[in-house]
Amino acid sequence: DQQVKQNSPSLSVQEGRISILNCDYTNSMFDYFLWYKKYPAEGPTFLISISSIKDKNEDGRFTVFLNKSAKHLSLHIVPSQPGDSAVYFCAAKANSGGSNYKLTFGKGTLLTVNP
Amino acid sequence: DADVTQTPRNRITKTGKRIMLECSQTKGHDRMYWYRQDPGLGLRLIYYSFDVKDINKGEISDGYSVSRQAQAKFSLSLESAIPNQTALYFCATSGGGGAPSNQPQHFGDGTRLSIL
Predict the structure, then answer these.
(1) A10-14 vs A109-114, strand pairing mode
(2) Is pLDDT at B95 greater than 90 in this prediction?
(3) pLDDT above 90 (res B1)
(4) What 3-state class would DSSP assign to A25?
(5) How many CB pairs under 8 A join A and B?
(6) Does the CB of B23 have a partner CB in chain A at under 8 Å?
(7) Strands of A19-25's sheet, edge to edge?
């Protein structure tokens, strides 16, 4: 039972354009969401997060949008740069029910930004 | 210097061997985690520890054991390695002590383990 789903295994965009990575979740107890970026031969690096009390969080070129009613979040990268090419993981956690430790990850989306 | 260091970075071994993967951190975090990543499956939690005296199973702990030797050190052992434990293993840390926390987890660069 996959509670965090990234339905696009890969995405290709042109440099300078917007990249939109999507993530859906099924567990209504999730109330904190994170995006991680992973380059080959490196560990995942924290990128940006959002709490369920917000619907948008912005950090430079990166913005995460949360639609709780749809159980959907998205990561927007504007403008996209070749250095953004990496695998992006969506992750979620529930801060109640004794599971505040646990991050549930999606399978990842490989973003390729073409010069 | 890396904040979360995993050793070794790569390991090839044979079925039935005992393997230990080590993780050390300089972030001063209380919480440490071990994950494995398989192609197309994302990251799955093996074990986690909130402090030196606290060890908990994650979603896929069978065949693994851990030891929290100190706040900064958390090792993962495969007592008798089998081929389906071939994977990329990540250690992670986070702050927040024992209370619910939204502090993100910080990952090491991984250990690529191959079991023949």
Answers:
(1) parallel
(2) no
(3) no
(4) strand
(5) 53
(6) no
(7) A4-5, A19-25, A72-77, A62-67, A56-59
